[in-house]
Amino acid sequence: MVKMRDVAKLANVSVATVSRVLHNPETVREATRKKVLSVIEQLNYQPNMLARQFRRNETKIILVVVPSIMNTVFSGIIEGIEYEASKHGYRVLLGNTNRNVENEYGLVELLKQKQTDGMILLSERMDADYIKALSEEYPLVLATAYIEGLKVPSVSIDNVSSSRDAVEHLIGLGHREIAHITGPLQFAMSRGRYKGYKQALMQNNIEVRNMLVQEGDYTFESGYNQMLKIMAIEKTPTAVFAANDDMAMGAIKAAKELEHNVPTDIAVVGFDNISFSSRFDPALTTVAQPLFEMGQKSMNLLLLQMQGKPLVKSQYVLECELIVRDSCGGKKKEKVLNEKLTT
User: Fold this and answer.
1) Alpha-carbon distance 249 to 317, whole Å?
2) Within a 10 A sphere around the Cβ of 318, how many other Cβ atoms?
3) Which residue, among 76, 96, 99, 122, has the nearest Cα to 273 in the 3D structure?
4) 20 to 30 A from 280, CA-CA: which of 4, 88, 129, 214?
5) pLDDT tens, 213-263?
């Protein structure tokens, strides 16, 4: 392996001069700089970036902890993170925890051991006090989830108001028996979407029927199974709001198997606007999260921390949009047209 001293010897300069050419070229005379660069090319010298980063006490790597890479919501956010990271010379190390919180605690050790410069956490599974303590010592951003009262740099959406808007759309179409398939209620995000569902019903003087609320786990299978339970109730609903698109699609499959037409017999609305939602049959009405922008904003927040700059604002809540398609009927033509133009 070619070393820096080999370059220095052939170029007839000191090792320090070669180092300056690589790291601070403006401090070296042009003739010397050209000679050194010529030798570097001749010998195909590759600087030891790891050693350089160790001396600077930085890795130019950021860690992104994700519960499941199978969830396309996270891939949209990661795309935004990687785009912004690459612009500033950072690489992204993806830590997939497979929904196991112990794996999250294990990945944090990479941050503590200085193997990464900062962390973006796309999960709320770890203890809130632990996350807060971690953020006080290391550059950290919590993305996708807003935990009330937790003073940690974060980027999220308003799950309550977005869900309320989705359910109010169904109410506006004349539905009053509206079921809800929640996400795991141990998570703030799921509770927020459930809260928005209840607010919409109560604000329109509609009774919240506990039997119409079934807890899923954000998978297609859970949407399917919980929909079967809902449709077995004596007084079946005319509409369903699912806390994510995968569960909404599972619910539609169950409804079809029971020979119910969607949306004629039962309307369905999801949440997330994953890429497949517009191609599903029927095309899914859903709440679109600004995933790419969430990733960009999260990376920008992390960069400020890693650079030691003060945060003028540490918590960002980005706006969502209700995309009206075929699965709930009564679609607004202008919104559907706009969606077709952007997909």
Assistant:
1) 27
2) 14
3) 76
4) 214
5) 999 999 999 999 999 999 999 889 999 999 999 999 999 999 999 999 999
CB 180 within 8 A of CB 163: no
Question: Residue 1: pLDDT above 80?
Answer: no
Q: What pTM was estimated for this model as a whole?
A: 0.77
> Is the CB of residue 291 less than 8 Å from the CB of residue 278?
no
Distances (CA, A) of 48 to 45, 85, 141, 324: 9, 22, 30, 53
Write out the two tokens for 6: 């080999």
Indicate the average pLDDT of the chain.
88
CA dist., res. 78 & res. 120, Å (int): 10
Cβ–Cβ under 8 Å, residues 300 and 307: no
State the Cα torsion 248-206-289-184 to the nearest 10°.
-60
* CB 296, CB 81: distance < 8 Å: yes
On whether the CB atoms of residues 239 and 212 are closer than 8 A, the answer is no
Q: Which residue reads 């799950």 in tokens?
A: 159
Burial of 119 (0-12, 13-18, 19+ CB in 10 A): buried
Residue 154's φ and ψ, nearest 5 degrees, are -150, 155
> In this structure, how many other beta carbons lie within 10 angstroms of the beta carbon of residue 181?
30
Do the beta carbons of residue 307 and residue 296 sit within 8 Å? no
pLDDT, tens only, 209-220 = 999 999 999 999
Helix (H) or strand (E) holding 160: helix 159-172
With residue 317 as reference, give the H or E element that holds it.
strand 315-318
Structure-token pair, residue 128:
């809130």
Structure tokens at 92: 């992204």
Residue 57 confidence class, pLDDT cut points 50, 70, 90: low
Q: Is the peptide bond before 67 cis (omega within 30 degrees of 0)?
A: no
Got the DSSP string for 91-152? EEEEEE-TT-HHHHHHHHHHHHTTSSSEEEE----S-HHHHHHHHHHS-EEEES---TT--S
CA-closest candidate to residue 65, choices 101, 28, 88, 97:
97
Closest CA to 212 of 251, 173, 161, 245: 251
